[in-house]
Amino acid sequence: MRRPVVANLLLASGFLALAQLMTPTEAAAEARLALVIGQSAYRTVPELPNAANDAKGMTELLGNAGFTVTTAANLVQNEMRAAISDFAGKVSASGADTVALVFYAGHGLQIDGENYLVPVDLDSKREADIPLQGVRLNDLLNTLGALPTRARIFMLDACRNNPFPALSGAGHGLAIIDTKAGAPGSFISYSTSPGAEAEDGSGIDSPYTTAALTIAKQPNLPIEEVFKRIRVAVAQSTDGRQIPWESSSLTTDFKFFGESSGSQPAMPGTSAMALASGTRSVEDWRRDLQGKSAMVAYELVITDDTVPAYQAYIELYA
Fold first, then answer.
1. Taking a C-beta distance cutoff of 8 angstroms, is the pair 151, 254 a contact?
2. What is the sign of the dihedral through the CA atoms of 143, 209, 242 and 47?
3. What is the tally of structural domains in the chain?
4. Are residues 156 and 174 in the same domain?
5. What kind and span of H or E run contains 141?
6. Taking the CB of residue 292, how many other CB atoms lie within 10 A of it?
7. Residue 260: pLDDT over 70
């Protein structure tokens, strides 16, 4: 039986974070709004049991991070469009200091390079039906991109198996959109690389959301570092079959959770060294880990259990 490497690594790195989630300091200076959509109960294509769980977990995480969250599940096409429109109205009313985040878990596919999110009532008999029955990802991006905001964050766990294998023109996964080609201030995270499929997972959540729920709660991590660590964790947990991808045109800093007030208590099983900077530098660890397999490096990092060791691991295996 394969050792649950990522679960242990995330647990250990979580011990380096605070035991409790504190209200993020950044949230006080900005409004935070989120739309979370989980599509599980598809009517004519295979269901995705974990998508509903993914949405539930993200709703809790984002609420703790200071977001006002609107959660919707198992939406048909007109409901998806209405949810996006209503959310855009809230973002517009909130003003230019708003961080708007959309999380989508469900089926997604591409036709001729155009990405579509799949409503639960989509019943496509031919490729031409997809644009008529689906929801274009670009419609979502452009709707929010037209609004004055501090930042727009999109988390798309939508590259799962093609639900219409008989449609030869339906590509695997999603095509990557270059955020730099549109309005600045956007960050898009895809659960896997261009044209690849993401796994629904055998646990409660998908591999992507499992990693996000653990890593994003760590305090004082810039968004770029959060998703770099998510990429490492997902690649490890899927043995390299799935590697998340990002595209960013952000012009401002963002952290899900800021510095916590109060002291940093030791967690059970956490070494004293884990709460300090350690006696060996990140450069020392990079040199020692260089050329080693991810499994061997993991064992060394877990044994040492210090911040420089974890940082070197992330830098080398991202």
1. yes
2. negative
3. 2
4. yes
5. helix 137-145
6. 14
7. no
Q: Is 281 left (phi over 0), alpha (psi -120 to 50) or beta?
A: beta
Whether the Cβ atoms of residue 285 and residue 312 lie closer than 8 Å to each other: yes
H or E element that contains 130 = helix 129-133
Q: pLDDT, tens digit, for every residue of 115-172?
A: 899 999 988 778 888 889 999 999 999 999 999 999 999 999 986 556 666 665 555 5
Contacts of 33 (CB under 8 A, 6+ apart): 67, 68, 70, 87, 90, 91, 94, 98, 99, 100, 101
In tens, the pLDDT along 89-121 reads 999 999 999 999 999 999 988 887 788 999 999
CA dihedral defined by 230, 233, 235, 237, rounded to 10 degrees?
-140
Chosen domain end from 237, 257, 277: 257
CA 170 to chain centre: 24
Domain assignment of residue 67, given as a range: 20-257
Dist CA 122 CA 101 (whole Å): 25
- The CATH number given to whatever domain includes residue 235 is 3.40.50.1460
Contact of 106 with 135, CB cutoff 8 Å: no
91: burial class by Cβ within 10 Å (0-12, 13-18, 19+)? Answer: buried
pLDDT score for 299: 64
pLDDT for 137 equals: 93
- Residue 226, in any domain of the structure: yes
Give yes or no for residue 17 having a pLDDT over 50.
no
Q: How many CB atoms lie within 10 A of CB 272?
A: 9
